[in-house]
Specification:
The protein is built from 12 helices and 12 strands. It has about 400 residues and is of the alpha+beta class. The protein folds into 2 domains: about 1-55 and about 265-395, no CATH class; about 80-250, no CATH class. It is elongated and about 100 Å long.
Amino acid sequence: MKLLAHLKEAFLNLSSSKLRSTLALLGILVGTASVVAMVSGGELATNEALKQFKTLGTDLLAVAINDVPNDEPGSHQQINLSLSQANAIRAVDKNILDVAPYTQLYNPMQYEGRSVNGSVLGITNTFSQVIHLEIASGRLISSFDQHSLFCVIGSNLYDDLKKINFRDPLGKQLQIGQNFFTIVGVVKPWPENSFVYANIDSSVLIPILTSTTLSQYSTINNVILRLAPRANIEELNSHITQYINQEIPGKRLFFRSAKELISSMAKQSQILTIFLGLIGGISLLVGGIGVMNIMLVSVVERRREIGIRLAVGATRADIRYLFLTEAVLLSLVGGTLGVLIGIMIAFVIAWLWHWEFLLFWWPPIIGFSVSVAIGVFFGFYPAYQASQLDPIEALRSE
């Protein structure tokens, strides 16, 4: 009953000085909204990045094969991985389910007599399956294409070609170097990431054997593997390294595991979230200082009231609880409104950037809890000051 009486009286006291109470409430509101919006926005950005990355699947392993620098005479004669050797990697370990080697070239391209920017990727039929390429129109590169002059283009390149003569380029000729390729397919937009060293949306996909005839620099330097769900990555890396060193010595291998990259991104997002939370916490701290200032002013203005309460039998604990209740009430209202506004800001951010909006439970809970803690912490000193006033001195004050 005493708590209800304190709450009722605290509400009446705050209502009697609306402007002062509103200013104190705004400080907590802005601080809480900052914490919730910043942390939720950071979580949404991280979720979007991870979602785009996870579309590839977490069961992938990329192998980059580079030459080891060697100053010895005749060392410029480098042995490169052949297609048969690349496909044979599948037999190295039972946990390797699919192998997708690819080459990357930057040959000049022309369409309808106009230069076109983009890279050329020589791929096998398994490449599309491993990285989950989906066809928008036409067909993908198949195992029957071999040395044929057929190509599949990315969505961005498709749009660029269509702008040249405002016609669908599917079935038309695209010149790459001295050769003319027939466009047989267009792939759907594909999320660019750090796992595959290529922007599929701006690339031309051709049969890997055809790519070796376009340039002497067309070598298989990258292989993507699809693994069994519980494959041991370290053991796989060791087996692949041993195989490559036996087939083509003098190579340096770099491995990129999808699981490791996702884990690394998650750790980075945690650091970013903590950093954003600390920045928002500064605003909340300023709001708490505002609450303390308002409550100290209230103590000075209500000295006579405090003296009367003490004179008619109120204990110092009652005075302390009264002012502390006012501070906590301000924090509760400001924290609740701040959480709602923070969630709305995060929703607007997701809408503007076309992200999937998810309501994370812990930013609002942390924001609200910290706002209440701030109210208790910064409200305790004014409440203590009020409870320590001398009744006689307080009654003499005007």
